[in-house]
Write a structure and sequence with these properties.
Layout: H1 3-29, H2 32-58, H3 73-102, H4 109-137, H5 140-169, H6 174-201, H7 207-219, E1 227-236, E2 239-248, H8 254-271, E3 276-284, H9 313-316
Parallel strand pairs: 2-3
Antiparallel strand pairs: 1-2
Helix pairs in contact: 1-2, 1-4, 2-3, 2-5, 2-6, 3-5, 3-6, 4-5, 5-6
Amino acid sequence: MTSNKRAILISLCTSILLMGAKFIAFFITNSNAILTDAAESIVNVLASGFAFYSIYLATLPKDENHPYGHGKVEFFSAFVEGVLIGIAGVVILIKSIYSLFYGNVVSDLYDGAMIITLTGLANLVVGLYLIRTGKQNKSLTLEADGKHLLTDAVSSAGLVIGILIIQLTQIYWLDSVISILLGIYIIFHGYKLTRKSVGGLMDESNLELVEEVVEILQDNRQAPWIDVHNLRAQQYGADLHIDCHVTLPYYFDLNAVHHEISSIDKMINQAVSRQTELFIHADPCLPACCNYCKVENCPVRAEAFRAEIKWSMENVTKNQKHFEQ
């Protein structure tokens, strides 16, 4: 079993156990705030189950129908998890607002607080484990599930504090107020997760990855790499796909062009510490490139070298050679 599957299986089993514990706490106390936490646990179980299936799909090899692999299912998994979190938050708000106006009898809050404290600590530990494993293996699904559990742990901490305040002050309508605040927090977290997953499904460029690749190219640039432009980076699960245009001396033969492109491919794969697939289009140089071309003893130079154009996010991502700016 891979580390990703092991991590998400631990998350699924933990979520089932903690869901049961939280509903026991609700039946003991009849607290809306605790019901809020228990309802989110249902989402945790559903999300972890779907995430487990998504990770299974993401590990399948490329085939004729999926030439880029199955990694994008992780974005869909994160989208489903974000939507489920948002729905849970809306249901929590409706129930809490109703109870705020019509009242709700609670009891045995100390016992409920103890159970919620233990479940919050468990979610904190498992959540940090999932995030660490997800970052190591470049898995958006694991990171999303881990952040979800951390959100649950934070809401549990706020819930415990609120329960203790209610017990000490005997102001029981605070139970619904705390539940409303937690519901808003849960909806906001669901929105952020959904927004990120939609960006991936819509092939939104990962700007952090693009910036990292641009820095690698700039720090390791070679004289024959006259120009780089139209660079884009997309993530498919754990795999990274990059395409760009590289301007090379027009008199290079096919072997020389292949050598330079292979050098770029090897350099980026070694530097970004993840499986990277590159599609590099080779452009021939033009006389207007000469003023920033550093190729020594060029047999066709039309203009003397004046200054190097530093590659940055602003110029490398544009679909035009630098002299056209």
